[in-house]
Each structure stands twice: as structure tokens, then as C-alpha cells.
Amino acid sequence: MSSTTVNDPRRGFVQKARRLAPIAVILAAIFGAFALGLDDYLSFEALRDNREILMAFTADNVIAAVAIFIGIYAVSTALSLPGGAVLSIAGGFLFGSFLGTLWVVLGATIGAVGIFLAARTALGDILKAKAGPWLMKMEAGFQENALSYLLVLRLVPLFPFVVVNLVPAFLGVSLRTFTLATFIGIIPGSFVFASIGAGLGSVFDRGDSFSPTGILTPEVIVALLGLSVLSLVPVVYKRIKTSRKAS
To answer: Of 209, 224, 94, 88, which Cα lies nearest the Cα of 152?
Structure first.
């Protein structure tokens, strides 16, 4: 093979284009979703106005309804569309607290894995090359306790869901660890929202207004914080053990 073939700029451009294609597709889809106003359908008003149709379809076509719901949730998560709370509550509204939680967690995990893989494929190497050695140090520290750190980030919504999907991709977290932490970490919060959704019918019957802002009560926040502290126990234990060996 000649050197001109190896150093062919056109070949490099094609490789870059292929690497960036997943992110380009996602960005185009996000723009298209907002341009078409699809985010308007992720609202309590839409859920209330189409309540009878949705309940009837779910009752008559359970498998199809589950597949469609998981698909919508996965796409919404992958495109980082607003309305995750509404969809989680809708899961409980349509399927009940426990099954609703399961379908929400599956949909969110599939969507999160999709954006994680797209970011790792498209931007991981580029950002590492530009960030320098500090990112490698951060990557090593994060990878050592990746599961515990990710569980904390999933349990307590300190950062937007999309950020927690992207950052691990740049820090070299394995797909298995990311998937496991996402699936387990979002169960408690998803159950809270789905449980609220299971009782949403009575709210609609009374004609009351509803807002997701009132769901995260102090009691719920304290419970999630407690779970996040427990997930950090392995990290603390490992550091104490290491410090004792060093002394």
C-alpha cells in the first residue's frame, strides 16, 4: 500500500464522517422533533384529553401498547426531549405502579444506552485527544468506582439525565457498567413517578390541575439521598482499606 493511500485526506474525511454520523442523525432528529412540535404531546393536557383512547387501546392491545410505550420512551430519552417526568407518570397511569416502573426503566435504559454509544463512537476519541492528560487522570479515578458513582448520579438528579448519559462515554466507562447502573439507579425515581401516575385518574376525575414539581417531596428526596449514600459505601470502604495499607 502506497503512502499516498495511507495519508489520503479523503479517506480521513470519510472516517470522520462515519464517526460523527450517529450524533448528526440524533441532532437532526431532535431538530425535526421540535420543528414538528412533537414535544407538545408530552404533556398532562395531552394525556388528559386522550385518556379514554389511551386506556381503551392499552386494554385491548396490551403487548402493542407496551412495545409502543417503551419505544416512545427510548426515542424521547435518546433525543433528550423534555417530558421524561410526564412519560414516567403516564407509564403508571396506563400500566400501574409496578409494571409501569418496569416499562419506564426499560425504555429509559434503552434510550440512554443509545445516546451513550453514539457519543462514545462519535466524540470519545476526539475529546480525549483535545482534553489532554487531565482527562486521563479523571477517567482512571472514575473507572475505578464507576458503578458506585453512576448509581449516585442516577439516584439523585443533581445533573440533567442527558449529561449523565454523555459524560461516562467520554470517561471510558464500559457499556455493561453503564447499562447496569442506569437500569438499577433509575428504579426508585421511576417507581415514585409511576405510583403517582397510577392515581392520576382520580385527579382527572376531580378536574384538578396537576404538576410534576410537587412529586419530589422532602421525604422522597431524603429517601433518594439515603440510597445514594449507600451506593458510595464501597468507594469509602475501598479508600479506607487503601489508606490503612499505605500506613
So the answer is: 224
**Nearest C-alpha neighbor of 145 from the set 246, 244, 237:** 237
User: Is the pLDDT confidence value at 214 over 80?
Assistant: no
CA distances from 88 to 104, 119, 205, 213 (A): 6, 25, 20, 13
What angle do the packed helices 97-122 and 62-78 form, to 10 degrees? 40
Alpha carbon distance 26, 123 (integer Å): 13
- List pLDDT tens digits, range 94-153: 999 899 999 999 999 999 998 898 888 766 555 555 445 545 555 666 777 788 888 888
Please choose, from the candidates 159, 151, 171, the residue with its C-alpha nearest in 3D space to the C-alpha of residue 234.
151
Residue 240 corresponds to which amino acid?
A: I
Q: Say if residues 120 and 126 touch (Cβ distance below 8 Å).
A: no
Are 76 and 161 a contacting pair, CB within 8 Å? no
| Residue reference for cell 430519552 | 77
The grid cell for 194 is 409511576
Residue 54 near residue 47 (C-beta atoms within 8 A):
yes
For 4-15, the pLDDT digits (tens) are: 445 566 665 555
Cβ atoms of 46 and 76 closer than 8 Å: no
Q: Which residue has the cell 486521563?
A: 136
User: Phi/psi at 151 (nearest 5 deg)?
Assistant: -60, -40
Q: What would the pLDDT profile of 39-71 be if each residue is shown by its tens digit?
A: 556 677 777 788 889 899 999 999 999 999 999
Report the C-alpha gap between 12 and 63 in whole angstroms: 46
Encoded amino acid at 241, one letter: K
- Residue 194 and residue 101: Cα distance in Å, rounded? 6
Structure letter (DSSP) for residue 145:
T
